[in-house]
């Protein structure tokens, strides 16, 4: 019987979804890893021995050797994808990427909008065009993965329309902006497949993006992401594929994090250790990575929200970064919420340790 394992962040992102996905990929090497929200803004770090990779345009099973699948709920950017593909090839990772025909394509004009719009910068942005792409797709100016393998003339006309949508009127400027984009489109070997592709796998690993507290419907507007970061999309796909055996992996660090602007409870400066490999550091768009004590009320709130979307056969809690603080994780606050509770000793541990 087919089984699905869904990895979800309980906070504002950066919880350890990448290493959790890699752990499940190690346990289930014949699986496919499915991204069902977000896109090229992910920074899911996996370390295997002396190899390290930050997964963005590929799912976090790629370094382990598993194929990736991006659903219609995701965005892709051909240039970012091509660059990461080259990195993975150098590390002998799996560069097989299958993309739903209706996945949304980010263009250079979307990236420009994210990086120059004053409101975006005020509210916080990753600077990779995700929000602009999603917003544009509410207009007639859409661009899907299927368009990347359409006749070139049709693709060019759609791209010109998107440039016009953002106010780019100079034809030469548009052509220059599209040079790298079109070169990447030509260089990639596109595998555009609908959900029937997933029927060839007995185990599906769904890798979430960001965290429930950034969900477009449940976060505190305007500091949210333009995506459903709950299990909503993953569970709908499971129902479509008639998968009933669904196991949840809810992920949190030992402490709270938030990258960029927005409300955060229990925020304070933390003295951390063993965090030299932190991926999410300061950048000019998202600004600082902020820290705070773990808020158990918020964790339970996030669990309540996600339970409204998914019916699971088993739920697990994954606690990462336990070696970065001397504080004790208070499992009693969540003990009644799970069948099993797991935590990882560190982001680089080979296995998860049972807490109780």
UniProtKB/TrEMBL annotation:
Cofactor: Mg(2+)
Protein EC: 6.3.4.4
One Pfam family hit: Adenylsucc_synt
Coiled coil, from the record: none
Catalytic activity: IMP + L-aspartate + GTP = N(6)-(1,2-dicarboxyethyl)-AMP + GDP + phosphate + 2 H(+)
Domain of life, source organism: Bacteria
Residues given in the record as GTP binding sites: 13-19, 321-323
Subcellular location: Cytoplasm
SUPFAM superfamilies: P-loop containing nucleoside triphosphate hydrolases (SSF52540)
Positions that bind Mg(2+): 14
InterPro entries: Adenylosuccin_syn_GTP-bd, Adenylosuccinate_synth_dom1, Adenylosuccinate_synth_dom2, Adenylosuccinate_synthetase, P-loop_NTPase
Known partners and oligomeric status: Homodimer.
Family: Belongs to the adenylosuccinate synthetase family.
UniProt xrefs under PANTHER family: ADENYLOSUCCINATE SYNTHETASE
Protein's name according to its UniProt entry: Adenylosuccinate synthetase
């Amino acid at each position: 019987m087919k089984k699905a394992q869904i990895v979800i962040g309980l906070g504002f992102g950066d919880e350890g979804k990448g290493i959790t996905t890699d752990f499940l990929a190690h346990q289930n090497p014949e699986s496919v890893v499915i991204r069902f929200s977000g896109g090229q803004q992910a920074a899911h770090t996996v370390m295997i021995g002396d190899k390290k990779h930050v997964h963005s345009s590929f799912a976090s099973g790629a370094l382990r050797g598993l194929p990736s699948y991006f659903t219609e709920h995701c965005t892709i950017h051909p240039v970012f994808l091509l660059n990461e593909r080259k990195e993975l090839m150098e590390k002998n990772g799996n560069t097989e990427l299958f993309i739903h025909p209706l996945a949304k394509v980010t263009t250079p004009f979307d990236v420009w909008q994210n990086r120059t719009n004053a409101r975006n910068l005020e509210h916080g942005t990753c600077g990779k065009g995700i929000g602009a792409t999603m917003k544009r797709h509410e207009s007639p100016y859409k661009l899907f993965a299927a368009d990347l393998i359409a006749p070139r003339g049709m693709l060019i006309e759609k791209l010109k329309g998107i440039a016009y949508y953002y106010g780019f009127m100079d034809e030469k400027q548009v052509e220059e902006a599209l040079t790298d984009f079109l070169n990447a489109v030509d260089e990639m070997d596109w595998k555009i497949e609908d959900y029937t592709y997933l029927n060839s796998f007995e185990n599906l690993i769904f890798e979430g993006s960001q965290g429930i507290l950034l969900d477009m419907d449940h976060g505190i507007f305007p500091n949210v992401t333009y995506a459903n970061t709950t299990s909503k999309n993953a569970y709908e796909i499971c129902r479509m594929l008639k998968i009933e055996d669904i196991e949840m992996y809810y992920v949190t660090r030992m402490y709270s994090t938030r990258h960029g602007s927005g409300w955060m409870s229990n925020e304070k400066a933390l003295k951390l250790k063993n965090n030299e490999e932190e991926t999410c550091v300061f950048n000019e768009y998202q600004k600082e990575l902020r820290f705070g004590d773990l808020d158990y009320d918020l964790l339970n709130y996030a669990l309540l929200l996600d339970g409204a979307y998914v019916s699971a056969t088993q739920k697990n809690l994954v606690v990462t970064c336990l070696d970065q603080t001397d504080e004790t994780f208070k499992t009693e606050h969540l003990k009644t919420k799970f069948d099993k509770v797991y935590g990882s000793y560190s982001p680089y541990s080979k296995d998860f340790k049972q807490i109780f």
